[in-house]
Design brief:
OB fold (Dihydrolipoamide Acetyltransferase, E2P); 308 residues; 24% helix; 7 helices; alpha/beta; 16 strands
Amino acid sequence: MKTDQGILLETGTGEVEILHFTVGGEHYAINVVKVKEIIHIDNIAKVPLTHPAVQGISLIRGEVISVIDMKQVLENVKNEDVRESMALVCEFNKIKVAFSVDDVVGISRIKWSDIHKPSLLIADSLVIGNINLDNMLLMLLDFEKIVMDISPEVGINLDRIEHLTSNEKRENYKIILADDSPLIREVLKSTLTRAGFKNLKFFNDGKEILDYIIGIYNEKGRAFIDDINLLITDIEMPQMDGHMLTRTIKEHHDLKELPVFIFSSLITGDLKHKGEAVGADAQISKPEISELVNLIDSMMDRVAMHHR
C-alpha cells in the first residue's frame, strides 16, 4: 500500500487515519501520513557495530534505508527472520526509516479526541496515546522518540543551536507551546531558554492550549495579544491536533491575529499544504531548531515594525 493525496483527510477537521499493526501479539498504531508504503523486505544487509534495534539496511526503490526491529524496540527480543515481517516505510524529521512489524491489520479513521493520554505511570514510555478501537486497545507509539533513542543526532539537540547566542530582545517575547512529547517539550525548553527566551508556557495538547488562549481572550478581549505573542504547536497530539488548533484560531475574528508556527516532524514536501490550508504563519520541521529561532526573530521584528 502506498499513501498518497487521496487517502489524506481534509485538514483541520479533528480526524486522523491510523494504521493498526501488531508486534508480539500486542496492538499498536501509527498515523497514516507518516507511512509511505508497506512492503516485505527481501534484501537486507547487516551493518556492524550498530544499535541492537537496527536490523540493517535495505535498498528500497533505489534508496538505502535503515530497518528498525520493532520487536527489539518493544520487547527486547530480536526478530530472527525479518523476511517474514511487514515493513512500514516511514518519513518524518526529513529522513526515511523502515520499521519491521509482525502484521498489518488495517486503516481506521478516528477523531483525535478519541486518542487518550497515557497514564502518568507510563508517561516516559514510547506510548503517546491509547485508542479504543472496536473494544480493542491500541497503543499509539512515539516513532520519533524511537529513532532519536537509537540515533540522537537525527533529532533536536543542543548542538543544532551552538552557534546561536542569547539575545536580550527575546527576553520579553511571550510564547506558548503545545507538544505531547515530554522529550520534545524538555528539549524545546532547553534550546529556547539558551537562545534567550524566558517567557515560555508549555501545554500537553491542542485542547489544553486552546482553553488557555480562550481564557485569556475572555478576560482581556483583543488585548490578549499582550499576554500571548506567539503559538508554537506540534501536529500530532491527543484531544486536538495542531491543524485543528490552528484552523480554530485562524477562523476566529480576533484570535486570528495570533501568529501560529507549526513545528512538527510531519513537515514534508507533500504535507506542507495542510498547514497552509489552515492558515499557519510558518511551518518548520522538528530538527530545524535554528530555523525556528530565526523565524521567531523575524516575527518579532515584523510586529515591532507594525507598532512603530
